[in-house]
User: Fold these one by one.
Assistant:
Number 1:
Amino acid sequence: QVQLVESGGGLVQAGDSLILSCVASGRTFSTYIMGWFRQAPGKERELVARILWSGDNAYYTNSVKGRFTISRDNAKNTVYLRMNSLKPEDTAVYYCAAKLRFAGPYDYWGQGTQVTVSS
């Protein structure tokens, strides 16, 4: 069982930056693939970024490429999402999630943190 706790959301202006953090419980954090998802009102949840076990081969959805950076610190059981040049369309609840298998579903989810970007 893994528990995930996100933090770092808030209200910012367009062009600002935020860093989201997600701390995982347990001693097997390095065995999990970690992802950041977001869900805006009236929209489906989407995968924003994903990072593999050792931090290699990050994936980003097209709308955040060049602006967002996912990273992880396995010694701290933490995954980060640095968000630069934020846009109003980035407004959403952001969730971190964890899974063991590359081709499998995400097994564990955090409670979410709200990010609001004003124009």
Number 2:
Amino acid sequence: QVQLVESGGGLVQAGGSLRLSCAATGSIFSIGAMAWLRQAPGKQRELVADITSGGSTTYGDSVKGRFTISRDNAKNTMYLQMNSLKPEDTAVYYCYATSYSGMAYWGKGTLVTVSS
């Protein structure tokens, strides 16, 4: 089993920055790819960015050039650096991880609110 705990959310003005963290505990040796997803009120959950165990990354079109995903395998932590935030970035941000055996794990989410 893997447990994921997000932190770093909060209220920020448009144009500001936040850094989210996702700490993994448990069977961390089994973790492969990780990702950040978000869900805004009344909308479907969407992929923000993902990162493989080797560090390859992909981003959703709406955050390219503004957000950076990274992971520190020694600290069992994944990050999301969010710059130039917009009101439309307001959402609950979820940490997601998959194991090499195909199991999927979710964090409980952290709320990011961007005021105009």
Number 3:
Amino acid sequence: QVHLVESGGGLVQAGGSLRLSCAASGRTFSSYNMGWFRQAPGEEREFVSAISWSAGTTYCADFVKGRFTISRDKAKNTVYLQMNSLKPEDTAVYYCAARRIGGNEYAYWGQGTQVTVSS
């Protein structure tokens, strides 16, 4: 059973930073991609960033390039999302997810962590 637990959300002023963590357990993730998604009130969930667990190859949405960085610590089985230069429009619930490489969808999701950026 895959278990993903996010932490690190909170309230921050515009221009500030937060680091989200996603603790993963339940299996070996060497054949998985780990992703971060977000969903703002009244909006659809959108892709933010992803990383291949084994190679560390990263992907990110255009709107976070230069501001957000995804990374993973294999020893701690944890994925991070470092968020800098936060904007009010980054306010959302942020979710961690796991997808088997070659799979069609992210099959495993965490419960989410709230990020609120004040202007």
Number 4:
Amino acid sequence: QVQLEESGGGLVQPGGSLRLSCAASGSIFSINIMGWYRQAPGKERELVAFVTSGGVTKYADSVKGRFTISRDNAKNTLYLQMNSLKPEDTAVYYCNLRNVLTKNDYWGQGTQVTVSS
């Protein structure tokens, strides 16, 4: 089993920054994809960004140039640096880990990000 614990959410004004972290523990297969998803009220969960264990990244168009995903494989920790935040970035942000071999998905409990003046 894999456990994921997010931290770093909160309330920020438009144009501000936040950094999310996700600490993974348990039986983590070395070849995996870690990512951030978000879900706003009344909307479906959507991909924000992911990074493979080899360092390949992908971003949603809505966050390109503003968000940066990174990971520290030695610490099994995922990060999301969010800059130039907009009210439409308000959502619960979830950390995800996918075991590439088994295709199993693991989720964190989510952390609330609210962008408001």
